[in-house]
Amino acid sequence: MAENAKRVPLSEEERLYLLEQIKKYPIVQNKKTDVGTIAAKKRAWEEIMRIFNANGNFLNRSIVQLRKYWENAKARRKKGLGEQTRDLIGTGSGPYNPLQSAYPKVEMVATDLNYHVGYQWDGDPVVMEEAAAKGKISISEPDGSTFTGTSRLEYINTAEIPTSSSASLPLSATTPLSHISGNYPCNIKSPSTPAPQSQPSLSPPPTSPSFPPPPSLSPPPTFSSSPLSPRQTPHDTRTGVLPRTVCAHEARERMRLQEEKELHHERLAEVKLNRKEAEKRQQRSDELHRLEMERLHVKVEFETRQMEAEARHQNDMHREMLQAAKEKYEQESRHREEIHHAQLRKLLEPSVHSAIVYWKLVAAEKLFEFVFDIFCSDKLFARCDSKSRLIRRLSFTGELSGEYFEAYLIDGEVRDVNQCLTRSIPQADLTSTFPPQTKPSYVPKKRASGKHHARLTDATRRKQLKEAYKKYVKMLLEEAVLSLGDQGLLQYDLPQTTWFVRILRNRDDLRDTNYNITLTGM
DNA sequence: TTTCAGGGTCTCGATTTTGT
DNA sequence: ACAAAATCGAGACCCTGAAA
């Protein structure tokens, strides 16, 4: 309870005016506590406060004050109704006097929020398969005909496809005989009259070896069965012309055979020659193949050596790159470390005022008379000490430029740095040390109605102690800030205080701007 | 005595954690 | 992934001390 809070009761006019405004916003009567309702009620109360304070005849009131008045009014109304009920139930009392309430009736009906959530049906889903099927059907031609297999086949079958094949045609009778072999008597066979291949078989067998019958289809002119030519005379036949002709024919036949024999020998010799040449060509080809294989082998060996050399070169390059990267990384690491050390030195340099973070800690150390061990990456690099009563161990959660710290409580006295580094921080005995001044516990009292408050559990008591200690610490911080004054806050780059009717308005800002307190051990 | 305001418990909804 | 349990936050309601 704030002792310095000025209690100015609401006048009757203020009460009526406030109740009128509350009546205009039935949402404040809604008992629902969901997010939307809470926000709506908050907005309604803000509007009520704005309207109330806009009246120049009234003293400005906060939302908390207005809401508290409303709660108290409701409690009084409820209490009065209870007394009225007891009067009605009780016997021996006087006439019933209805309770004259100073409060207007308000609508207790909660706003019907059964509004329809916008739902718009966007129709049946489109069946793509059907659409695709229709698309297939639409491919049919407008006249109804389709490209069915039957139509296509009909078209193919009815087409006049010319063919060049002559297989169905009968064999031509004009095929000439390529060769006819055989020994015929010199007076019978005529080389100038070729005969079909089938003709010899059709001819009758010869009656005499020396005089075979001539072919029936093409009889030689000399043995024609026809009557004698007009130039032949029976005299010639009788005087031995025929034997001479036969002999001459035999002589010519022998010459022909001789010529054929010579030709055969020539061809045989030519074949032998060709064979030798082929053998030579084969030898040359084999030689060329061997040379080609040797060339390829040399080429493969060369390329293999080249690839190995290339691989060795690449390995060397890779090794050099790795070495260079390693050296660069080490150099950059050294550079970063130097920058870090320089930054730390700069932070620790008292003359540098740009290091707001560090100086805020210095200011906090002076403000709160605590010891601040400032850690970065688990390394202690700064300590703000002023013979303190407590140690507050701060560690950056982000970069040095960050302004967020976590504070861990260490009990009692200053401990050495090594102990802090091990993070084996003993837990604070909060129950015995804090809060030393505040009223920690809640003592149940016997109520007039005979009921008792629920007995506090251990968890509830721990929660009470925790909250009490947090308040105690915040009170210390606030007292320190207030004792410093605005000039001191300005000197240490801390936010200025703003006041309104003896109330420090930005006390929360002052607490939260620089320090986020985390308590351990509870 | 009345009224304001601090502080307690309880309830409810939302969110997070935990177990299956 | 889901459900149950735990936790958190805000408000409602109530009690009580202190000041006017």
Key structural traits:
522 residues; mainly alpha; four-stranded mixed sheet; 6% strand; disordered C terminus; DNA-binding
Protein described:
By secondary structure, this protein is mostly helical. Among the domains are: 12-89; 354-442 and 457-514, no CATH class. Helices cover 50% and strands 6% of the residues. The protein contains 13 helices and 6 strands. The protein has a 4-stranded mixed β-sheet. Helix 1 packs antiparallel against helix 2 (35-54). It binds a DNA duplex (20 and 20 nucleotides) through helix 2 and helix 3.
Topology:
Elements lengths: L11 H13 L10 H20 L8 H27 L38 H10 L11 H10 L40 H4 L31 H5 L2 H108 L7 H13 L1 E7 L2 E6 L5 E7 L8 E6 L6 H5 L8 H4 L24 H34 L7 E2 L2 E2 L2 H8 L8
Helix pairs in contact: 1-2
The protein binds a DNA duplex (20 and 20 nucleotides) through α2 and α3.
Subunit structure: Self-associates forming complexes of several hundred monomers.
Pfam family, one: Myb_DNA-bind_5
Keywords: Coiled coil, Transcription, Transcription regulation
Could you give a quick summary of the protein structure above?
With 522 residues, the protein is mostly helical. It has helices at residues 12-24, 35-54, 63-89, 128-137, 149-158, 199-202, 234-238, 241-348, 356-368, 417-421, 430-433, 458-491, 507-514; strands spanning 370-376, 379-384, 390-396, 405-410, 499-500, 503-504. Among the domains are: 12-89; 354-442 and 457-514, no CATH class.
